Amino acid sequence: MSTRLWAAALFACVSLSVVSSPAQASAPAFDHSLWDEIVQAHVDDDGRVAYRRLRESDAARLDTYLEALARADAAAMPVRGRLAFYINAYNATVFRSVLKGRTAESLVSRARFFRFDEHTIAGRSISLEDLENEIIRKEFGDPRIHFALVCASTSCPKLAKRAYTAENLDALLDERGRAFLADRSRNPLGQSDTLVVSAIFKWFAEDFEARAGSVQEFLATWLDQDAPACLAKRACRLSYADYDWSLNAQPNQRP
Q: Is 116 a domain residue?
């Protein structure tokens, strides 16, 4: 097994090593099939969303899924199922916000989108900002979530065309991480002594540092031949790509 694969396997094991209680182990899995069908129908291979088509043909099914999220007992779920639940809840809530005319495209609209609008998830009224920071980041401590949470902006990672589940969680988080770091529109990388990556690695540096010791150490486990030579010595000057907050809609598919 290569060093990179060994590190990835170890990371997956350590990331979600919490032991479930007997009650959690026996709890029925939350059904994400509606969300799975919605993203398969309305997200293209570039992660862009047909919001207009979604509003016209599938808004009721999205509402049904969100109502189930609102009633769910997240505390009864095993840890992998709970993290999958919250990732899907975040992304589905973003869909509903966009259909209501909310976006993160301007500084003012971002404050409302992330901080002021509240949504009911697992019986709790919560903003997207608090869902990400107070639940997903704080409870699970897995930096790979930054490859999975999509706030409907162009520079966000591409949205997965599958629902996250307890069974596919680790593999899908790894897949989205590899896809994100291989995407030169989001992580240009650069040459010589400079490593140009998404601003996500600046905003959430502490998450990557907590996992690997430094952002560069984290990146070194995910980047191979395309990385500038300075990364081998962990001696790169980090630079961050401009973040494009425009809506991640397919052409002519704004809601």
A: yes
